[in-house]
Amino acid sequence: MRTSKGALQPITTAIVWIHDHAEKANESSATLLGKKCRYFHILGYDGLGQKIDSALAKATDYRKIVLGQINGGWLNNHQISEGVIKAVEGDMKEFLVGD
After folding, report:
1. 62, 54, 2: which is closest to 36 by C-alpha?
2. pTM of the full predicted structure?
3. With pLDDT > 90 as the criterion, what percentage of the chain qualifies?
4. How many domains is the chain partitioned into structurally?
5. pLDDT tens across 69-81, in order?
6. Can you give the three-state secondary structure of the chain, one letter per residue?
7. How far apart are CA 13 and CA 61, in angstroms?
8. Looking at residue 80, which CATH number applies to its domain?
9. Nearest C-alpha neighbor of 16 from the set 35, 34, 42
10. Residue 62's closest CA among 97, 86, 96, 95?
């Protein structure tokens, strides 16, 4: 990302789904992308009650997408994709995919 940042047009929208074990990855990505980038952070169901990460919110135009469930089961790839697209197109600050 660091290499492409200077070679391409500014990144204005990022959809970011990084697992918890990569602790510094979100912060590093946010720093590289900057405040003008809409940063859609995808979280698992446990992110539902999670407060917005203040470091990410300061570094980017932060948005949160939480992957819920449908009828008590996991979302499939199509449902996840549809939900994420709906959140991005609707420019949602917080969005729950599913129930």
Report:
1. 62
2. 0.85
3. 51
4. 1
5. 999 899 999 999 9
6. CHHHHHHCCCCCEEEECCCCCCCCHHHHHHHHHCCCCEEEEEECHHHCCCCCCHHHHHHCEEEEEEECCECCECCCHHHHHHHHHHHHHCCCCEEEECC
7. 9
8. 3.40.50
9. 42
10. 95
